[in-house]
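User: Show me sequence and structure for the first protein, then do the same for the second.

Assistant: Starting with the first protein.
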Amino acid sequence: MTTNTSQAPHMTDHLDLLESHAIFILREVVAECERPVLLFSGGKDSAVLLHLAAKAFAPQQLPFPVMHIDTGQNFPEVLEFRDRAAERISARLIVAKVQDTIDQNKVADPGPMGSRNRLQTITLLDAITDNNFDAAFGGARRDEDKARAKERILSFRDHFGQWDPRKQRPELWQLYQGKVNPGEHLRAFPLSDWTELDIWQYIEREEMDLPSIYFAHERDVVLRDNMWLAVGPFVEPRKTETVERLTVRFRTVGDANCTGAVISVAMTLSEIIDEVSVANVSERGATRADDRFSETAMEDRKREGYF
């Protein structure tokens, strides 16, 4: 007697469990909160989060908007993907611009070559207040940074968006207390327990679209602070630097002047998965200058209200 393997039941794997848990968190927050929003940078993690949100509420449209905090120093490939991804699922896209915050004299202009990465905090908090959002979904993962490893899946912030790790609620046995008390604001991280490898395996399984800069391509770069920065409008070669044409890809997406590329020939999802599976440094630790300013760079920004 032969068995028709095409009719065999699907075996639940770790990606199914991660997906199910993330969808549960998305639905629970929507049930508890009146005006949630999903933060979307156009990077791989927020792309997975948006994909999960679409699954969680299908066949209906998302019951909340998607918001990007635009520093004005993004890779053009990422902005193009951002618009395409939101349009594909008919999501309402809100773009909050750091330039507007600068024009309102709420933060100092760092100049055309200066980093605007840290300025995002004020723009984010203003956008949350202006739109009266009481919860925001983010794609942060605990394995990215030691400050994010302290973060609960449901992270409660005070009226000013500030984070105090000592005042977070316990989350034992995946039981969550989602009620938002007066004066509180909720940040929710459905991908907290995912790893970089999980993200890439899920992207491959779901056949997801991504910005092209995640795949190996030729680009002019300069070596600065042990990182390969892409030469362009926000990175000009210094007198002591030599422009090189290399085959690179990006492991993470951030501002062009603080996000480094890695030398790579991985042009397919399976090749990226093979590459990530042997990496011994997290993507942020290897390629994000904004996390190298101090040992507590990420934690300091989170206390100020950053994601």
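Switching to the second protein now.
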Amino acid sequence: MRSFASDNNSGVHPLVMKALERANADHAFGYGEDPWTEEAVARIREAFGATCLPMFVFNGTGSNVVALQLMTRPYHSIVCAETAHIYVDECGAPAKMTGCQIRPIATPDGKLTPELIQPYLHGFGDQHHSQPKAIYISQCTELGTIYTAQELKNLTDFAHRYGMYVHVDGARIANACAALNLSLKELTADCGVDVLTFGGTKNGLMMGECVVVFNEELQEEARFVRKQSAQLASKMRYLSCQFTAYLADELWLQNARHANLLAQRLYDRLRLLPEVRFTQKAESNQLFLTMPRPVIDELLESYSFYFWNEAVNEIRLVTSFDTTEEDVEAFIAKCSQLLYTHSSPRKS
């Protein structure tokens, strides 16, 4: 199966698989007291800064739950875009686990700004109102758009003025760095981010994410929160060893550049076809577009992808580190054939 449905559908990079095989040797102490985890922590601190606290967890929802619990108490509120993963796709886990009110904000492109958030920051000190405490953003966003470093700095400066924290869900942080030609540190710690989910599952890892805590005020309780959230792996080495391979020789960046490049190729070719309209900027490895419903239905017979807004025939296409040029060319050829067939006048 070749899929444009999600980068979650991609396989495991061979170098990551080799790292897992190497870690699967002999016995090792559990819960992170092993040399593979020690090496991975060192690699992450090289990439993000020596004072950060890396914590490996099982999955993306778990990482968001851990990060947001560090920042909040149940009487707080968490601000996010209305398209945010924590609001749309995590079955209420962040609200349940934090006890916080989630405040979604409408955005045209999935990106929050201080101006959009400002009207929601009120009731400070009033015991009748949930207290705004955390801002959640995704990088890249759920609409494939990307926060620049300056936009991130503006958000973190704004949040910190109000005594709030910023959590970046970096499930696709590699794609953002590749697009902006910035390092991981330049797009996180240097921007004042408090906590990051450093994702890799969508970019060549088998499983697992890493919660990277930059704000030293939040580090003391972090390990306890991870344990209580059922995100502490006993056989930690199988999570951590992947990140060593991921960061070695910038594999994370190579994979993301490849995915972005093929998404751009899809965009460049598809936008020339009749009745194809893109609904968001093509900035990462996610594309959002509309085309006639009969064409979509026929494409779904050969390819896997998701509707984003079925009411307006909007679909999402996602490329991965293992998407090939042949995949792209075949998809474009099929689209072209179907679009021209459906748009050509029929003889009576």
